[in-house]
Each structure stands twice: as C-alpha cells, then as structure tokens.
Amino acid sequence: MTFDFWAVLAEWPLLLQGLAWTLGLTVVATLVGMAVGIGGAWARAWGPAPLRWAVGVYVELIRNTPFIVQLFFIFFGLPAAGVMLTPITASLIAMVLNLGAYATEIIRAGLQATPRGQMEAAVSLALSPAQVFWRVVLPPALKKVWPAMVSQIIIVMLGSAVCGQISVEELSYAANLIQSRNFRAFEAYIIATLAYLALAILARRLFNWLGPRFLFGK
Amino acid sequence: MTEFTSWDIVRNLLLAVRWTVVLSLIAFVGGSVVGAALLALRLRGGKVAQRCIGGYVQVFQGTPLLMQLFLGYFGLGLLGLDVSPWTAAALALTLYTSAYLTEIWRGCVASIPKGQWEASTSLALSFGEQMRHVILPQAVKIATAPTVGFLVQVIKGTALASVIGFVELTKAGSMIANVTFRPFTVFACVALFYFALCFPISLFAKTLERKTNVSRA
After folding, report:
1. Does residue B74 sit at the A interface (CB-CB below 8 Å)?
2. CA-CA distance, B65 to B153, in Å (whole number)?
3. Which residues of chain A have a CB within 8 Å of the CB of B67?
C-alpha cells in the first residue's frame, strides 16, 4: 500500500476552514456552557427545591445519553415539534447543553467544598449574597475544579466531530469531503486526527494558562 | 404504505438494544484485557515502554472516538482485510477503552503507599506475588467505582459506531425515523433506552464510590 498525504494536504483551505469551525463551535460552547454550569451549580447547591430537582434531572439525562443522540434529537426530532434549526444552531445547542450538564456537576463539587466559615465571614462583612457568590465562593471553587473542567471542555471539543454528521463543516466534515474527492480516506482521517490531537494539547495548555489569570487568581 | 404504530418503533428499538449491549460488552471486556496488559507493561517495563504507553493513552484521550472509528474502518481495509463495521467498531472501541482503563488503573496502583511495595519486596515476594497478594487486592477496591463509571462512557461511545454503519440503537433509530417520519418520538425513545441502560450503572458507580470513601476515611 502507498500513502499519499500530499493529496490531502493540497486541500489545506478546506482543512483550515474545518479547523476554524471546530474552534468556533468550541469557543461559543465553552463560554455559554460554563455560564450554564455556574448557574446550574448554584441552583443545585442553594436553589429552591423544585429548581434543584429540575437541574438534577437535566444533568442526569444529559450525562446518561450519548452526545450524538442528543444532537439528532435536537436536529431531526425538534423540527417535528415545530422548532426548525440550522445545523450550526443545533450543534451549538447540543454542545452547550452537554457541557452545561457536566460543568454543573463539576462546579457544584467545587462550590460544596467551600468552608462554611468563609461564607459567614463574607456575610459578616456586609457583602450582598450576589457578592458573596461571585467574589468569595466561586473563584476558589473554580480553581479547585479547573483541571476537571478543562478536561471536560476538551472532551466536548473532540465530541464536536460528530456535528459533521449533520453537515456542519467542521474538521471531521472537511476530512470526509476530502476523502470523497480523492479517495484517500486513511490519509485524510490521519491528518484530521493529528489536527485534533494538536488542538487538544494546545487547548489544555491555553486553559491552564487562562484560568489562573482571568478566572480565579493564582 | 405501511402504518407504523408506536409499538413497532419501540419493539424494533428494543431489538437493536442488544447490539448496543453486545458491542459494549466486547469493548469493555477486550479493553480490560488490553488495559491490564498495558498496565503490567507500564509497571514492569522500562522507561521506553512507559513513555510509549503514555503516548498511547494521550493519543486515544486526545482524539475524537469518531476519528478512531473511521481510522479503524479504513485502516484495516488498507491492510487488505475485508472489514465489516463489526470488526472496525469492536477494534476501535476496544483500543479506546483500553487506553482509558489503563490510565484509571495506573492511578489506582499509584495511590497504594510506597511502603507497601517496599515491605513486600523486603519479604522477597516476586513481582507477580507482590501484585497478587499485596497491591491488587487494595488497588481493585479503589478501582471498582471509576471502572464501573467508565462503562457508561463505553455504552455511550458505541453510539458512534452507527456512523460507520454498525446497526445498534442509534443507527436503528435513524433508520426507523426515516421510514416512520416520526423523528421526535424515535429519538426520544432512543435517548430513553440509553438512559435506562446507563443511569442504573451511574447510580451503582456512585454507591460504590461512597462505600470506598467511607472505608478509607
């Protein structure tokens, strides 16, 4: 057998575009998903009982079903209920819901590890409940769970390869398209896979650098 | 034109569940065997073996399972083998599982205090005896909960085998949705079936975790 990696690399604009879509989806999903996770974690830890219960159901439903089924339900299932979505919107919703559920569990673990005395001290300094949450409780909680959070973000980024199945033109879709043009399937998937590996390694470094600087201090 | 009742949908999905279960079991059992072999190599082998296995773990954890499945499918074909989705899916999922399990178990073995190794070495136990009588009985206790938890990941991972044409729950769902024109019901059912498979296992893993923590505290 002979390999022809150049035949695939010659299509670099497609690969690059795919890479850009993968990154774009991941960035949006990370930002919104983390916000969902923070809200969900707050609700799970201190929300009123019905809300706590609802968030619990959401988290367990998402964590115990495959991402591809969530995506298909949103993209193919919801239009039957009258909600039409473009492939990109559907992918984003699926990624946000998915990351949001895992982030809820991860951040909640951090929140519940906060010593009670810290909250009491903050209250006794006349901070409002919102201030206590944002300035006293959340930053150290995020710091504690940041490695797990970063791993989860990377899992979601790698999971976005599935979005190519509903024709979002991300990296795996680009590899599919290229192999359908030149029949170099193995080479195309090797190159895409290496690109994902590089992305995963770089993303981990980037998040490890970003976290202490912008989210919770060293 | 045939009319499809809801019972038709559920019945056909139920029939497909067994392939999800079978594939999960193959991947989990195969992955455990390969993972255990890798773990032994990691503990016994030299620096080179350790680095290689570290790289292996990083590759499988740092790339999408979907790509691994595609590579299994087309890579085996390049070797001149006649690949069925069965072989490709079983191979890719086994390797994927082995990478995660070997990493989970390595962590568990590493959490055994060093004194246990030293004490058993000073009793002139061989590596095999050390493992069997001293290290594994303790490591297995710690490893059970995360291993059971990972089974959920494996079951969810098998859903991706649908993409290379393996007819399991998700693929059956897609096909049924196409003929019945009821994607909402079908995919909701598919999701519920996965939930019914995974949720009890998740709960079980959580219970085990609580038990381990209590016994260690």
Report:
1. yes
2. 11
3. 161, 172, 175, 189, 192-193, 196
pLDDT (tens digit per residue) in B174-217: 999 999 989 999 999 999 999 999 999 999 999 999 988 766 54
Q: Is A69 on the interface with B (CB under 8 A)?
A: yes
Give CA angle at B127 (B126, B131), nearest 5°.
115
A127 vs A138: CA distance, rounded Å: 14
Hey, what amino acid is at A81? Answer: A
Please count the structural domains in chain A: 1
Q: Determine, yes or no, domain membership for B1.
A: no
Q: What is the ipTM of this complex?
A: 0.91
Q: Is A64 in contact with B194 (Cβ distance < 8 A)?
A: yes
Q: What is the pLDDT of residues B108-123, one digit of tens each?
A: 999 999 999 999 999 9
CA angle B33, B38, B42 (to 5 degrees): 150
B170 and chain A in contact, CB less than 8 A? yes
Report CB contact under 8 Å: A76, B183. yes
Tell whether B124 lies on the interface with A, counting CB pairs under 8 A. no
pLDDT at B31: 97
Residues in A touching B60 (Cβ below 8 Å): none
Q: Flag whether B59 is in a domain.
A: yes
Side chain identity at A152, as an amino acid letter?
Answer: Q
DSSP calls for A87-145: HHHHHHHHHHHHHHHHHHHHHHHHHHTS-HHHHHHHHHTT--HHHIIIIIIHHHHHHHH
Q: Is residue B87 in some structural domain?
A: yes
Residue whose C-alpha is closest to residue A72's, from A163, A189, A201: A163
CATH code assigned at A129:
1.10.3720.10
Sign of CA dihedral B2, B4, B10, B16: positive
Contacts of A95 in chain B (CB under 8 A): none
pLDDT of A195: 96
Looking at the structure of chain B, the number of domains it has is 1
**Do residue A69 and residue B187 have CB atoms under 8 angstroms apart?**
yes
Interface of B with A in 8-47 (CB under 8 A): none
The label of the residue with tokens 């600087």 reads: A213
Give me the CATH number covering residue B152.
Answer: 1.10.3720.10
Q: What is the pTM of this model?
A: 0.92
State the residue range of the domain holding A33. Answer: 5-216
**CB distance B65–A158 less than 8 Å?**
yes
Residue B124's domain spans which residues? Answer: 6-216
Nearest to A64 among B63, B182, B202 (CB): B202
| Domain contains B169 | yes
